[in-house]
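User:
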Amino acid sequence: MKKRFLVVALVMAFVVVFTAAVMAQQTIRIGEVQIIAGSAPAGGGQCAAFTITNVGAIPDNNPAGLCAPIAVSGLGNTTYVSMTVAANHSWVGDISFRLTNPSASQLFVMSRPGVAGPGGGGFGSSGDFNQNFPVDFWDGAPVSAEQLGAGLSGTQVVCQANGICDFFPDPDGQPGLTNFAGFNGAASTGNWQFCAIDGAGGDTGNIASVTLNVCGEEPPNPSIVVTKTVGTDPTSCATTSSVTVPFGSMVYYCYTMSNTGNVTFTHHTVVDDQLGTLLNNFPASVGPGAGAFFTVSAQMDATVTNVVTWTAWITGTSVTTAGGDNAQVIVEPPTDVSLTTFGGSNNSLLIPVAAMITLLGLAGLYAIRRRQEA
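Assistant: Predicted structure:
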């Protein structure tokens, strides 16, 4: 009989303590991530002119030519290139201009005007260059560079004599690109190289200046603004960063990210220093001007300030950024000290109370049993 009584008592104690522990568990629910529609900010490319002066004398009849670097910086990948050259040289048919970008792609902008192809016979156009009448080279110009100086005598200056100052590139069979657009998409930042090559003897000259006009994509600017709010309405995203609630109340945190940069993020990780990792490598496309948000519910048993860090990036690249914010929940102390009061995640008080109740019950049962036996 005593053994049966002991077994029943132990079962009662286990049930009470187990029930108390289950009641104390905190429930955290993560809501669905929702995308906030937005539009890309106005912008696009940037353009700049890079000029070198007093470039130097062109070696006569020398395939190595005169080469000089043109440093380009502050731009993204190339979207447009044009070039202006101010030169002094008699007999333009001797001269070739070559441009090479930082990726080593080259374009013969001009190759001995009037001479048919590399190594072709003849002397080419006999007009002259004069630095006071620079020539412009750009895709879409009305005249081919192969026609530069055509019809001019040896004493007439290109651009001055005929008013033709704009030319589109014509490699005339030289290896490499066929126009400036061939540079598009490649990195613009770095040293470009301009070369002036004299392919025949007897006429000399120099390069006074070269201006390289380059447009590039806007450099990546990853940037986000993170906002964390908290409230008690489960149907909407709260607008406040602090809330005061009774002990054991359910609150709803709202995590919002706004894309203030110029790139489209593809993945996200969100970590709350109190609630843990809420999103981990989560795939969601959020473009410039757009955003995303989600909510998390939690039952509160103590005052706490949560700090969130939202990291967004473009998968497969080094483009990444992070932002953070915080929100506070102030919990009012309980007014009723009962078993149901000790909810939430704090088991340190609930379980001892349950155990005490169980022991007191066992002691009373034991006393009654002893009296019956007496």
